[in-house]
């Protein structure tokens, strides 16, 4: 398997064209060979830092709206720890990002994919992996290097464009089975997007305004960020403080970080990679 260092820090290796942290290789290989979806499964899929945590919280709340606050598991655990234990996603931690187009084609289960514009994704990755891998050390990996590795595709779960385009095409081919959401649309028109998600999941109450508002509030960054568990707790499997998963959640935050050259480089690549797909990933 091809291997290389990600940000001079952790080894990543390539499996069928996609990069993963070496630590996860065995689990990934086992999953890829042993994955047997059921027809009523709904798998949540995404690239890293594109809205996964939000999507998990939304799906959890759509399915568990009747719970009172006492039973709200999101109040006690990171969404990443809560959702894999649900029926809708029986996978072990971390595997939901594995690129799965073949499985998508062959299985009868449904997928929800959340995509985000590449410039905010890079900036979010830069914050997250600097905190996670350098453990808040004094010397963060330079943003320029982060953009370089993102554009080359050699980042955990990358390459980004092949990931997103694969799911996009699948969602066009089989819209009843693959729902393609965008982080920016969730921010811009949250109620409409939640209704779409709930209806795709076959949940009742998707047309009830109060229900939709409750789902949105319970899943909101503002609420989750302030929960004690997400301020001071840790997701042990990932050895990551929960606080790392909740930052600004702002569309267009890249403008505060990327130079015009960096932005232009990403834009040009985006143009090239999305050409002819009908997909746009604007902020
Ligand atoms: N509930 C909710 N609502 C809106 N936005 C949210 C929410 N939870 C997390 N975030 C923001 O999503 C970004 C992290 O993406 P992921 O959840 O995909 O990260 S991860 O790959 O699962 O680690 C990261 O974006 P940035 O703030 O731009 O870094 C988080 O702040």
TrEMBL record:
Family the UniProt entry places it in: Belongs to the sulfotransferase 1 family.
Alphabetically ordered keywords of this record: Transferase
UniProt xrefs under InterPro entries: P-loop_NTPase, Sulfotransferase_dom
Lineage of source species: Eukaryota, Viridiplantae, Streptophyta, Embryophyta, Tracheophyta
Entry EC no(s): 2.8.2.-
Residue intervals of the Sulfotransferase domain: 40-277
Pfam families, per database record: Sulfotransfer_1
A GO molecular-function annotation: sulfotransferase activity
Record bears the keyword Hydrolase: no
Name this protein carries in UniProt: Sulfotransferase
């Amino acid at each position: 398997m091809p291997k290389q260092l990600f940000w001079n820090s952790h080894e990543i290796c390539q499996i069928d064209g996609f990069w993963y942290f070496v630590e996860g290789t065995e689990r990934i290989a086992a999953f890829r060979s042993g994955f047997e979806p059921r027809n009523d499964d709904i798998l949540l899929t995404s690239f890293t830092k594109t809205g996964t945590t939000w999507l998990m919280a939304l799906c959890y709340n759509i399915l568990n709206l009747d719970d009172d606050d006492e039973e709200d598991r999101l109040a006690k655990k990171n969404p990443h720890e809560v959702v894999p234990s649900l029926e809708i996603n029986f996978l072990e931690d971390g595997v939901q990002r594995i690129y799965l187009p073949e499985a998508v084609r062959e299985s009868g289960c449904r997928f929800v994919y959340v995509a985000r514009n590449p410039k905010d994704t890079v900036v979010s990755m830069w914050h997250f992996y600097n905190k996670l891998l350098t453990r808040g050390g004094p010397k963060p990996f330079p943003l320029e290097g982060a953009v370089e590795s993102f554009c080359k595709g050699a980042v955990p779960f990358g390459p980004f464009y092949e990931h997103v385009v694969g799911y996009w095409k699948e969602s066009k081919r089989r819209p009843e089975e693959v729902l393609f959401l965008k982080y920016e649309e969730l921010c811009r028109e949250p109620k409409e997007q939640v209704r779409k998600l709930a209806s795709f999941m076959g949940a009742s109450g998707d047309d009830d305004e109060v229900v939709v508002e409750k789902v949105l509030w319970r899943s909101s960054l503002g609420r989750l960020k302030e929960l004690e568990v997400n301020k001071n707790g840790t997701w042990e499997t990932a050895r990551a403080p929960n606080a790392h998963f909740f930052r600004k959640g702002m569309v267009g935050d890249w403008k505060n970080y990327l130079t015009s050259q960096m932005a232009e480089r990403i834009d040009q690549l985006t143009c090239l990679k999305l050409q002819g797909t009908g997909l746009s990933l604007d902020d």
